[in-house]
Structure formats: structure tokens, C-alpha cells
Amino acid sequence: MDTITNRSTPAYFLQAAIAFGVSLLGMLGGILFLPLDPWQRLFLGMTALFLVTSSFTLAKVIRDQQEAATVRVRLDEARIERLIAEHDPFNAAT
Predict the structure, then answer these.
(1) Which of 3, 45, 50, 69 has the smallest number of Cβ neighbours within 10 A?
(2) Residues 6 or more apart from 30 whose CB is under 8 A from it?
């Protein structure tokens, strides 16, 4: 059984890491340098922190669901192959 592995290239990983870093720094720079009151800065900071952590959580949940689906599919395929291998069409049903 051939398994297809979806691996990210190092360049794609680097691009994603750089994009995340630039966007995070831009957001933090905006929070720090915008003319805001301290309570507004804290509100934006808490919101940004929640957004970043929930993004990581969402990515992990999606990855876990995809991995579970592939394992489930492999188990189902193995079960079907075993049933087909054990089936004898010339044996009379009793």
C-alpha cells in the first residue's frame, strides 16, 4: 500500500515563519506606538494574545483531525482487503 506524505519544503516553512514574525511584530508595534490610553493598549494586547494562541490551537486541531482521518481510512482499507482475501466465491454459503 502506497502512502502519500505531505511534507512542507524548508522554503515554505521559512516563508510561513517570516510571515508570522512580521505580522506579530507589526501588530505589537501598532499597539505600542498608536496614540492610545493604557487601558486601550492592554485591551488590544490581550486580544492579540488570544488571537495568536487560538490560531495555534485551531491549527493543531485541524492537523489532529486530518491525521485521525488518514489512520481511520487506512484501517478501513485494511479491513476491506482482509474481507476480500478471506472471501471464497466458490464456497457455498451455509
Answers:
(1) 3
(2) 44
